[in-house]
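Journal club prep — side note

Before the paper discussion, L.F. wants everyone to see what a predicted structure for a comparable chain looks like in token form. Sequence:
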Amino acid sequence: MYIEDLLNLLFINLKVSSYDKPILNSFVAQTTAGSGLTEKQSQLAIKLIKRYSKNLGNFLGKNITTFLDNPKFRYPIRKPKTSKTVEVVDHKFWGKAIRLEIPFNQEIINAIRQNKVNLGFSNWDSEDKCWMFSLEEKNLKFLSNIIEAYNILPDDELKNYFNQVKVIVNSIEKYIPMVSMENNRPILKNVSSVVPKLQSEDIISALFEARLLGVFTWDEQVTLQLNQLTLDSILLNFLNNESHKFFQIDSENYSVQSLLEIIKYTQPILFVIPSGDELKKTKEIYHLLIGAGFSSQQMSVMFRLSNKDDMDFNIFVKNNYLNNEISNQTKFVFVNTKIPKPVLRSNIRFNNIIVLGKLPHQQWIREYTKNKPNLVFYCEPNRQMEINFGDLYNNHP
């Protein structure tokens, strides 16, 4: 049996002391990544296994002394790398890639793992014993911090890319699409000529309009305009919310009335009413909308419950004229556990999705809410289910 196998058995099946755990974790991470141990590490690994040899022997049902007296390693003993290089190379899939070769460093591995969702393509090349990153802005920004922190010198081509990124970061207002002001009117800056011009004249409406066009940033001129207004805190926090994350309103501390300002600017809206308290939650939103001046003809409840157990819900929908087909008048649609076919056939384009409770673990809701500019949870703290709006790329050590 290989020493690496014994390390894995110890890591997975047995309890080790808090003193030994970091060393064991490091060895397992290294060997799982396909990297052999150094001479010094191999001796330390054998000592570590000997310390728990009795427990390992009991677990395996045999004496492991022979494996330790004549140790065999799955991977060749590795000579420690001392050189640190990062360079641009050709890649058969990505065209150009960034190749990072460094001595084993758990801190850098942890940094890559922790930032994986925010990076472009990246993976550990077990044959070449190096990290490979696609050549794109997200990876350049991440690696520029790594090489600076660990004193790694890039090649000239990569250095040029890093300098370009710095220029952009230092002059961000010239590159990032954003809302600005011109002649006292909101405009879009740094966008393609095919992007429609803003139609809204007031700044709040313009910011919501910009979100639907994929623009979530504004400049100092807009900030000055906002500072002159008395804005609802929920509304301002919503506008500041990052585009790829949902926005949560704590239903324990804020009444349903707190949704009103967001509702005002984001119609048409899809209300998702998860199973449980359908009548109560539908009533709350209905009365909120009626109180704000909307009519029943602008609402459409697209689900019904069992007459046997939930007749009151169906009666409420009927008596308040909420069983409307979707039309040009429709501003608010209510669904429960699925998107009904009439909603899909209507081609209605929702500007906001508001979930009144915990989001059900169903594929349709994941797909339907994916990449929407506005997604709001009105629920108790820690009850929402976080949507993964980005793809998780590749495995890594």
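L.F.'s comment for the group: The chain has 16 helices and twelve strands. Keep this in mind when we get to the figures.
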